[in-house]
UniProtKB/TrEMBL annotation:
Protein name in the entry: CRP-like cAMP-binding protein
Entry GO MF terms: DNA binding; DNA-binding transcription factor activity
Superkingdom as given in the UniProt entry: Bacteria
One GO CC annotation: cytosol
CDD domains (UniProt xref): CAP_ED
PROSITE patterns: CNMP_BINDING_3 (PS50042), HTH_CRP_2 (PS51063)
Keywords for this protein: DNA-binding, Transcription, Transcription regulation
Native species: Sphaerisporangium rubeum
Gene3D superfamilies in alphabetical order: Jelly Rolls, Winged helix-like DNA-binding domain superfamily/Winged helix DNA-binding domain
Domain named HTH crp-type: residues: 136-210
InterPro entries: cNMP-bd_dom, cNMP-bd_dom_sf, Env_Response_Regulators, HTH_CRP, RmlC-like_jellyroll, WH-like_DNA-bd_sf, WH_DNA-bd_sf
Pfam short name (any one): cNMP_binding
Keyword Oxidoreductase: no
Length: 217
């Protein structure tokens, strides 16, 4: 009932791949975006959350999929947008006004709790990346982040391997784990030579999930 109530706060609209939902630094719009996959689609709704640094570098902070909410921090804190959010697949989006979203949370404590858990989960993801940076080599960090993404967002294939569920460049992987692009390229090549990953369909990665979990342990 609460999910239907949340969906009913705003109508859905179709968005194509490559559309910017949120612009970093925007102070005028604090809407919340609820992501939904298109009915019958063979790919899930997916967006990338990216921060652009003053140096011009891009840092991929995370990936969000159908059922996720994005833009909630600016709505709750009434602060400028801290990152850019761009679609990477066709999807449906419910654009909910900030005050409407907050009022709904106040009336539904269970949804408040769910949002709090979601924010905590994203913080834990960021903390794990920092710990991995301090403890592990680049190949292990690459394996860990690919495995986590596959477990969260991936799709099981008929051959028992797992489609990552999102296209990632070497530069994007490098930004997530705090490594150089060349080091990530070398690590990816080593994992591919070991039969743990493969690249198909425009950089999409297919994983041997069990083998990769043993490798990164």
């Amino acid at each position: 009932m609460e999910r239907e109530g949340l969906l009913g706060l705003a109508p859905s609209s179709s968005r194509g791949a490559g559309e910017v939902l949120i612009h970093q630094g925007d102070q005028d719009r604090t809407d919340v975006y609820l992501l939904r996959s298109l009915p019958g689609a063979d790919v899930t709704a997916c967006v990338k959350v990216v921060v652009y640094l003053e140096s011009g570098a891009e840092v991929l902070l995370g990936i969000r999929v159908g059922g996720d909410v994005v833009g909630e921090l600016a709505a709750l804190r009434r602060t400028p947008r801290s990152a850019m959010v761009t679609t990477c697949s066709p999807m449906l989006v419910h654009v909910i006004r900030a005050q409407v979203f907050v009022d709904f949370l106040d009336r539904h404590p269970a949804v408040w709790n769910a949002v709090a858990r979601m924010v905590a989960d994203r913080l834990e993801w960021a903390n794990r990346r920092r710990i991995d940076f301090a403890q592990h080599s680049v190949p292990v960090r690459v394996a860990k982040v690919l495995l986590e993404i596959a477990e969260r967002y991936g799709v099981e294939r008929a051959d028992g391997r797992r489609d990552l569920g999102v296209e990632l460049t070497h530069a994007e992987i490098a930004s997530m784990i705090g490594a150089g692009k060349d080091a990530v390229f070398k690590a990816m090549r080593g994992l591919k030579d070991a039969g743990l990953i493969d690249s198909v369909k425009r950089r999409r990665i297919v994983l041997d999930q069990y083998g990769l979990s043993v490798y990164q342990a």
